[in-house]
Amino acid sequence: MHPILARTGRLTLYLGLWVTVGVLLGALLVAQIGAPWSVAALIAVPLAALYSFVCLSAWYVSRGMPLGATGAVRIVATALTASALSSAMWLLAARTWIDWITKRGFVPPLGRSGPALYSLFSAFGLLLYLLSLAVSYLVAVVDHARASERRALEVQVLAREAELRMLRAQIDPHFLFNSLHSISALTVSDAAAARRMCVLLAEFLRESIALGVETRITLKRELGLVARYLDVERVRYGSRLQHRIEADADADTCLVPPLLLQPLVENAITHGIAHTLDGGTVQVTARRQGSRLIVVVENPCDPDRPRAGGGGVGIANVRSRLTALHGAEARLVSVEENRTWRVELVVPVE
Questions:
Q1: With the C-alpha atoms ordered 257, 261, 262, 264, is the resulting torsion angle positive or negative?
Q2: pLDDT over 90 for what percent of the chain?
Q3: What one-character-per-residue DSSP string does 146-170 give?
Q4: Residue 12, CA distances (Å) to 17, 268, 287 in order
Q5: What is the pLDDT of residue 174?
Q6: Which of 2, 27, 38, 181 falls 20 to 30 Å from 72 in CA-CA distance?
Q7: Closest CA relative to residue 230, chosen from 196, 204, 195, 194
C-alpha cells in the first residue's frame, strides 16, 4: 500500500497540500483567462484533488526504477511518458468536469478562453507530475539512507553483543579453573574443606548460570554473587580472608552486567590477600552519585609481591566489557597507594 494511503493523517495533509495547489491553479485561471474567483475555484480545486490521486502513481514509478539500478536515459524517458499520460488523463477529466458544470449552469460557457484553459491544464499537469516524481525519488533516497544507517547500527550492535558474549565466556572458565585448582590442593591437606568448597562452588555456579540469560541484573544481586564467591574462597584462606560489602539503598537497584565485579574481587584475592602474610579485608562499596554508579573494590597488598603477567583476564576483561557497553561514559581506574590496592568502577546509571 502507498505510504500516504496507509495513514489517515498523511492522507489529510497530502490532500490539504493539493487544495493549496488548486488555489494556485485558480489564481492562474484568473490571471490568464480573466475568470472570476468563484468560477476559477470551482474548476481548479476539485480537479487538483482528483489529480492528487493520479500523482500518487509517481511513488510506484520511483520504486520500480531506483536511481542506483536504472540508467538515466530510461528514467528520463519513463518520467516523460508517465507525466504525459497523467497530464492527458487530467486534461480529459478537466474537459469532462467543465462540460458538466457548464451544462448545469454553475459556470458560464468558456468561449474563446477554452483552448487557453486546456493548454494551461496540460502544461500544469506535466509539471505537477514531474514534481511529484522528483519528490518520490527524493523520499526514496532518504529512505535508503535511513535503511543503510539502520543496517549499520544493527551490525554494530550485533558485533558488540558478540564481543560481550566472548568476554563473558572468558570469565567462567578462568574462575572455574582457579577454583578446581584450590579444591585439588585442599583434598590433600583438608578433605572436609574441599567437600565444603565443592558445595559452595556448586551453589555459586548454579546462580551464575541462572543469570547467564540476563544482560543486566540489579547491583544487589551482583553483590550477592560477590558474597557467594568470597564464601567459596574463605574455605581456602580461612581467617586470613575477611570481607565487607556496603551499598547505598539507591545504588542497590541500579543495573549492571552479570559477573562484572567478580573478576575484580578475584583479582583482589589472587594478587592481594594471597601475598599478604596476615591476610586482610576485601572491601566492596557502592554508591550512586547523580547519574553515575560508583563501585570501589579495595584490598591490602604487599609492595614486594610478585607481579602478575599480562595474560590474565581480570581488570582488562572488565574494562573491555565497560568499553563495549558504554564507551567513554564508563571508566575503570586502579591505583596502589599506602599498601592498599584500589579499583574504582564508574558506569552510567541504568
A1: positive
A2: 25
A3: HHHHHHHHHHHHHHHHHHHHHHHHH
A4: 9, 66, 53
A5: 61
A6: 2
A7: 204
- Cα dist from 304 to 57, 213, 298, 307, 336, whole Å: 80, 41, 18, 9, 12
User: Are 322 and 331 within 8 A, CB to CB?
Assistant: yes
Instruction: Classify 110 as helix, strand or coil.
Output: coil
**CATH code for the domain defined by 190-348:** 3.30.565.10
Contact 42, 29 (CB under 8 A): no
At 1, is the pLDDT very low, low, confident or very high (cuts 50, 70, 90)? confident
pLDDT tens string 238-291: 889 999 999 999 999 999 988 788 888 888 888 888 888 888 999 999 999 999
Q: How far apart are CA 156 and CA 167, in angstroms?
A: 17
Produce one character per residue of 288-301: b if its CB has 16 or more CB atoms within 10 Å, e if not: beeeebbbbbbbbb
Nearest to 296 by CA among 229, 226, 218: 226
What is the residue extent of each domain of the chain? 3-152, 190-348
Q: Provide the CB-side half-sphere exposure for 51 (13 A, CA).
A: 36
For residues 305 and 271, is the Cβ–Cβ distance under 8 A? yes
- Beta strands (DSSP E) in 17-175 are none
Q: How far apart are CA 283 and CA 280, in angstroms?
A: 10
Q: List the grid coordinates of 22.
A: 488548486
The answer on pLDDT for 149 being more than 90 is: no
- Do 323 and 336 meet the contact criterion of CB atoms below 8 Å apart? no
User: Rounded to the nearest 5°, which phi and psi values hold at 333?
Assistant: -120, 130
C-alpha pair distances (Å), 132 with each of 5, 14, 16, 19, 163: 15, 12, 15, 15, 46
Residue 312: pLDDT band (50, 70, 90) is: very low
Residue type, 339: R
Helix-strand-coil split of the chain, %, nearest 5: 70, 15, 15
